[in-house]
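Appendix B. Chain record.
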Amino acid sequence: MNKFDIARALDEISTYIELRENNRFRALAFERAAQSIRAIDAEPADLIASGELIKLAGIGKGTAAVIDELVRTGQSKYLEDLRKLYPPGILELLRVPKLGLKKIGILHQKLGIGSLDDLEEAARAGRLASLPGFGTKTEQFILGSVEKARRRESHFLLPIGVEVGEQIRGHLSAIEEIDDAEVSGSVRRRLEVIRNVNIVIATRAQERVVEALAGFVERIERIDDDTVKAFARNEIAVWFHFTKPEAFGATLLATTGTPEFVAAFLARGGKLRRARTEKELFDKAGLAYVDPERRENGDDLKHRRHRRLIEVSDLRGTFHVHTTFSDGRNTVHEMLSAAHERGFEYVGISDHSPAAFYAGGLSVEKLRQQQKEIAANERGVAPMRVFRGTEADILPDGTIDYDATTLEKFDFVIASIHSRFQMTKDEMTERMLRALDNPCVTFLGHLTGRKLLSRDGYTIDYERIFEKAAARGVMIEINGNPTRLDIDWRHVRRALDLGVGFAINPDAHSVHEYAALISGTWVARKAGLSAKEIFNTKPVEEVSEYLRKRRKRPAGH
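Structure tokens predicted for this chain:
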């Protein structure tokens, strides 16, 4: 098993532990082990052989034993035993909003519910309302959400598609008959939710390659002379598109899509002729190369020159970082050290404010303790600059959590909504507009509050909010958390045209979640942004001076 397969098994164990025991602490041990395994550059088998596995952060004796068994046998008896305790479809209940593992455990224990069908039947019969933590309103909400959960079946977050695609490419690289292989389709375009993975394979020995696919995908089906469909992890459809090496570029362009983009390419003189690379096709048509992220339509084909989009390497620092002082899983020291090791010039610590009591929001007294902890660790990460901030709740009336005196002491303030999502469009818009009038606000956090595949964002008047944010000089964050990717890339260009600035933030709750800067950068690229349009590509001196001047401006400016 490769590191991704092992990490997935550890995550599944973590889920079942929390479902069975409601023991977040024990489940977290396997979750952290999964994060560590994903982050390693070496092969797990090599780390086991050298005795280095147990030395990794997040790996204990128990998790190391499970990893060792997975490497040796390809399976875990512990995981298999946990799976036997529940119906095969029980985890599909996680697609229903408001159903966490604790409630799913109650549903299974009290009513034997183990699938969406079971849940719908029980809700229609009125059997949920009497359960602890439910009630009539929750029952009705769940009943209305079951069909939405069904529609989300076979939909996956982008990082899963990227991971599966790269895993398969790794397997393909060991097949001698393959000249080249590349992920195409919606994964290559970096669409936030994907339905399948497409892979283009250049080979002159198609049949031998198809035979080899059985080693790492299941349910292989021949679709036509050049297309084979299969499944990875028994759930994600993978389409293999075969081509000769001299036509690899044309097949890659055609299968990356979209059909609208390909049609526009052809309409502007492009041809899907033999070409080893896409660049050959663009050059022969006299067109500037369009990056895959920008191929949802043909708009960028009008540009005379290739526009360099932002790269994650352009980011010099970041904001929106949580620690164990609120709901983070790593200490101030660990979060700062990890940022320093990544080569950041600056990082902004921003734990939750008091209203987010469920996330350990900091009282003023606890905030003082956090500030002392930051000060005690700053010297060890020099010359990296540490900015002191907060993710402060936008309260229902539009005011910002914390008193004015406290807010004025922060280097930056991320204003976010974490409550009362059911407000009307007008009410939510007015709430955010009032928040934007607060002179201490630096960023608007996760603009719509959406959770991809689990929670729709609240409805707002984007135009009014963009206009006010631009007028007040408040930046909107591109939240890189793969479950958020909020602001949606589709709205970025309009905000930019109105003068809104942006920062790519990870919303990191652990050292591993700094990696969300990668998915945040995907959003920025998909929106067509360059490095100069992102705040945290600026050098530390410029960022520091901007934040200093902003703290001194009068209200209303």
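Further analysis of this model is presented in Appendix C.
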